[in-house]
Amino acid sequence: MSSTDLRTVPAQVGAPIVELASPLVGGAAARTHAGTAGLSLTEADRSETFTMVRAGDLGSVHSWELVTAVDGPGTRLTTFLAGCPLRCLYCHNPDTMEMRRGDPVLAEEVLGRLSRYRAIFKATGGGLTVSGGEPLMQPAFVRRLLRGAKELGIHTAIDTSGFLGASASDEMLDDVDLVLLDVKSGLPETYRRVTGRDLQPTLDFGARLAERGIEIWIRFVLVPGLTDEVANVAAVADYVATLSTVTRVEVLPFHQMGRDKWASLGMTYELGDTPAPTPELVERVRGQFRERGLQVY
Ligand code: SF4
């Protein structure tokens, strides 16, 4: 995530659009968690299900939300996919980290719903945002959703950390209008402390997007004592200033609203004593981006 860095996503299975997330393979009584796809299968369905997953016809979805003024322009259907390779200390939706916590949903079902909102998207300049979790953990499914949305004439966005950017094919990117790119830190060692992973794939992905002329919105979560160092922010801002297609930078002040989810999942939350950033700190960091000529929110 993603936009869900600091936005608590709907309770699993989807709040406003419950029927989309109904199990589509096997009945509830027969469901077991199976394998890497994290989908719930019966033995008899297993082979067909994996074929559908590989083809992008079926994905593991955490939840859905119809939103305005977040996750891209206009009113958007944000689809939160399950599964993420990062382990951000501040993650507000740790229940999206594991793909097995998602529900199997057909791409057709998502696209059917999308089609019904077409008039709203057109009126507001909105569209589809595929978020997570990390959407690029399910590249075939994402590619299918993006292609289907474009065939419907709908604006598309993906919300990603970029860590799995190499999984996004050029064909997939041809169907992406906007990438919400979460740059979680600018210094490699800080990035690793925050996420448990390497920074370089994100940097490479952002450069690739800019080369392809794809619009980027940058997101940076400001956490006192973790990401707020002047040098760390400067490294993010210097990098972002090299990306010619960035039209917006969002500095997201850390807050504690997601902490209870960690406990409910039996996971250790390390930021329990971390305060929200002061207005002065937020302004300093936004200023570091503005100094490089960037449009900051
Ligand atoms: S762990 Fe994954 S889902 Fe959570 S904030 Fe990080 S990138 Fe987003």
Automatic annotation (TrEMBL):
It catalyses: glycyl-[formate C-acetyltransferase] + reduced [flavodoxin] + S-adenosyl-L-methionine = glycin-2-yl radical-[formate C-acetyltransferase] + semiquinone [flavodoxin] + 5'-deoxyadenosine + L-methionine + H(+). InterPro entries: Aldolase_TIM (IPR013785), Organic_radical-activating (IPR034457), PFL1_activating (IPR012838), Radical_activat_CS (IPR001989), rSAM (IPR007197), rSAM_sf (IPR058240). It is found in: Cytoplasm. Keywords: 4Fe-4S, Cytoplasm, Iron, Iron-sulfur, Lyase, Metal-binding, Oxidoreductase, Pyruvate, S-adenosyl-L-methionine. CDD domains: Radical_SAM. GO terms for molecular function: 4 iron, 4 sulfur cluster binding; [formate-C-acetyltransferase]-activating enzyme activity; lyase activity; metal ion binding. Its cofactor is [4Fe-4S] cluster. Residues 70-291 form the Radical SAM core domain. It holds the Pfam family Radical_SAM. The keyword Iron-sulfur applies. Its EC number is 1.97.1.4. Gene3D superfamilies: Aldolase class I. Signal peptide: none annotated. Binds 1 [4Fe-4S] cluster. The cluster is coordinated with 3 cysteines and an exchangeable S-adenosyl-L-methionine. GO terms for cellular component: cytoplasm. Belongs to the organic radical-activating enzymes family. Activation of pyruvate formate-lyase under anaerobic conditions by generation of an organic free radical, using S-adenosylmethionine and reduced flavodoxin as cosubstrates to produce 5'-deoxy-adenosine. NCBIfam families: PFLA. This is Pyruvate formate-lyase-activating enzyme. It comes from Actinotalea fermentans.
